[in-house]
Amino acid sequence: MKKKLAVGFAVTGWLAVIMQYVLMLENSVISAGEATIRFLSFFTILTNILVAVYFSFQVFGAKHPRLFVHKPGTLTALTVYITVVGLGYQVLLRHLWSPTGLQWLVDELLHSVIPVLVILYWYLYEHTAAVYFQRIFTWLLYPFIYLIYILLRGNISGFYPYPFVNVANLGLTQVVINSFLFALVFVLVSCVFIGLGRNIRRKE
């Protein structure tokens, strides 16, 4: 059952990411190279790629327990990231546009369906008893590095993937405040999953 779910989730993840890339190229008025860079500048895309890679490793990767994807906490961290993607979209971004057709389908896969699938897989298979609150600080490295990257590139190119990190429109001070609030969200969501996970294992 676990492997079958991993296969289905890996296929769904890669399909959604590839379809979004194709749609972006089709509707782009900039060069393919610049469009690709911008595509990989979205936290949503990078995190969904991580999800697809994780489930691909679950299917095809070695089963050695020391392999990173099999260590307790890796799935929880990934679940935190994709949950923030889903929450951020539903609360802050959904009202900004109304996609239709295939774009609507891909949008729902990336921001709604895949987060739910990852949470389900986490609930079923994460070794939550071995995941500790101290791990949260390590998990913050990924969004922190991402933030530095988009701010540096935005300063050079003028392109910011999300309105709440647009220094040109908001100013650096407001972007720093917004980033701090997002960091708090990451910490809160991490605490929720770790707490729930430990409670689940206690009941078992």
Describe the protein in words.
There is one protein chain. The protein has 204 residues and is mainly α. It has one domain (2-203). 75% of the residues lie in helices and 0% in strands. The chain has nine helices and no strands. The protein has helices at 2-26, 32-39, 43-60, 74-93, 101-125, 136-139, 141-157, 167-170, 172-203. Helix 1 runs antiparallel to helix 5, helix 3 (43-60) runs antiparallel to helix 4 (74-93) and helix 4 runs antiparallel to helix 5. It is globular and about 45 Å long. The model has no long low-confidence stretch (mean pLDDT 91).
In short, what is this structure?
This protein is mainly α and 204 residues long. Helix content is 75%, strand content 0%.
Global morphology: globular
Domain count: the total is 1
Helix content: over 70%
Query: Whole-Å distance between the termini?
Result: 20 Å
Radius of gyration: 18 Å
Helix-and-strand structural type: mainly alpha
- Main sheet specs: none
Mean pLDDT: 91
